[in-house]
Backbone:
């Protein structure tokens, strides 16, 4: 009464059951008719002739697999799982997850899995998937550096004081000079006559000068000091350091890639590209982005335009000869840091790049890192010297400049150990050096070990330095805080 009349379940009615029987009969008859029709067509077609010639099927060469996509997907799955597990384990001991992911990539390479089970290594990472991983890894780095550029607040860099600028540049000049001196000893032992000493010394200097800005941001965020006064100083110094180091690396790459007249062409095109991006594209972007931000919803079309512009920038620098990484990074840097579209791009791409793309880059690096190449007392001594010189340059240069700028010993030492963090950015630099033939696989392995050691030592030493007098979160909003999500 006053309720809704109950309606019988149609599926349980006799009429419905009869209807289902008719449907089943119809489908059954349709399948039977289709089979009979195809057999009739086949019987007619078997008697037909065709012109002679090569068929569509191409015979496989010896050892060639028809399941390249399967192996590529298998490799990708194993790489992602290994990276997540290794990152989680390193996180348990207070290390950035990115260090565990790098170690996981090395474990999948010839240094560990290739030694323990060559057959399993060949199944998981066969030679047929190496080109796939190479392209995938480079695309991942392009997207990663674009996101790093997005998280750089150029207004903070412009407003940075003279002291911050001096500290950041001292943390580049000192290791660069020490690396150049170190090249005097390394060149006769670990290089080849194909590489001019000038190029070798320049690259060695740059490889010791790099600071991993995103990893440093992650460490500060994990320790909850990214918004302290000294935390912001460290982030600003690292950001200036990274921009300067990328410019130096672009110069080195242009020298390596070009010869005589080509070198002049590369330099001129690079200068022209920088002028166009900073003086033409940047003002245009600053006018267009606010209009996109004011729209009720950021459409896929708007995001597509930004990504296409980023790819065009990367393609331009690749064409010039200074690698697509630089174009992606530079375009990300000119986008307004606090805009909605920058935030949206970070939100949509960040986890995807970190989880699916960067682990492939780590595995690709691990496949090229052969710890077996470093053998004997002399090799390990050289590796130790490289690590010591890298620490001396970064830590010593930052410490001296910080003290001259008026900071106390403890804060100066803390800044020094932070600037000594290399991590992922160093691996990008080293892979470029190996691809260009500037460094040998043995030196590549030694420098990868240096990058890992200098990054692993950062957190425990920083905690010791700040144990009694930690940096206090006093800055209400750190302009560079978002970059911590990248690692």
Residues:
């Amino acid at each position: 009464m006053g309720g809704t009349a109950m309606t019988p379940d149609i599926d349980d009615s006799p009429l419905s059951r009869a209807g289902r029987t008719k449907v089943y009969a119809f489908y059954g008859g349709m399948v039977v008719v289709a089979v009979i029709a195809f057999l009739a067509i086949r019987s007619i077609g078997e008697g037909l002739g065709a012109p002679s010639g090569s068929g569509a099927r191409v015979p496989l060469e010896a050892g060639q697999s028809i399941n390249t996509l399967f192996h590529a997907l298998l490799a990708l799955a194993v790489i992602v799982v290994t990276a997540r597990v290794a990152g989680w384990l390193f996180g348990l001991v207070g290390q950035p997850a990115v260090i565990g992911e790098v170690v996981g990539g090395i474990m999948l390479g010839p240094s560990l899995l290739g030694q323990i089970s060559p057959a399993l290594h060949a199944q998981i990472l066969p030679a047929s998937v190496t080109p796939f991983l190479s392209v995938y890894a480079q695309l991942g780095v392009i997207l990663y550096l674009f996101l790093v550029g997005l998280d750089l607040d150029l207004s903070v860099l412009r407003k940075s004081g003279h002291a911050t600028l001096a500290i950041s540049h001292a943390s580049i000049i000192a290791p660069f000079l020490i690396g150049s001196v170190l090249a005097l000893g390394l060149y006769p032992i670990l290089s080849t006559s194909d590489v001019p000493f000038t190029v070798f010394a320049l690259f060695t200097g740059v490889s010791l000068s790099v600071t991993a800005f995103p990893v440093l941001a992650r460490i500060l965020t994990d320790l909850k000091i990214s918004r302290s006064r000294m935390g912001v100083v460290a982030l600003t110094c690292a950001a200036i350091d990274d921009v300067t180091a990328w410019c130096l690396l672009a110069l080195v790459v242009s020298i390596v890639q070009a010869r005589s007249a080509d070198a002049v062409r590369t330099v001129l095109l690079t200068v022209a590209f920088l002028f166009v991006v900073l003086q033409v594209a940047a003002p245009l972007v600053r006018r267009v982005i606010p209009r996109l931000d004011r729209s009720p919803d950021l459409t896929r079309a708007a995001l597509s335009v930004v990504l296409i512009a980023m790819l065009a920038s990367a393609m331009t620098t690749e064409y010039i000869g200074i690698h697509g990484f630089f174009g992606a990074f530079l375009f990300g840097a000119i986008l307004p840091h606090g805009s909605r579209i920058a935030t949206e791009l970070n939100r949509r791409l960040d986890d995807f790049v970190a989880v699916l793309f960067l682990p492939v880059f780590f595995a690709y690096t691990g496949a090229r890192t052969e710890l077996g190449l470093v053998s004997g007392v002399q090799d390990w001594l050289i590796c130790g010297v490289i690590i010591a010189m890298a620490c001396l340059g970064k830590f010593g240069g930052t410490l001296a400049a910080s003290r001259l700028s008026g900071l106390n010993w403890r804060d100066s030492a803390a800044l020094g150990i932070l600037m000594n963090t290399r991590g992922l950015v160093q691996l990008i630099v080293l892979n470029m050096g190996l691809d260009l033939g500037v460094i040998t696989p043995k030196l590549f392995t030694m420098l990868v070990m240096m990058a890992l050691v200098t990054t692993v030592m950062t957190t425990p030493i920083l905690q010791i330095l700040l144990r009694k007098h930690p940096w206090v979160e006093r800055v209400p909003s750190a302009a560079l805080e978002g970059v911590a999500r990248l690692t």
User: Anything to note?
Assistant: The chain has 20 helices and no strands. Confidence is low (pLDDT under 50) at residues 1-10, 60-65, 475-487.
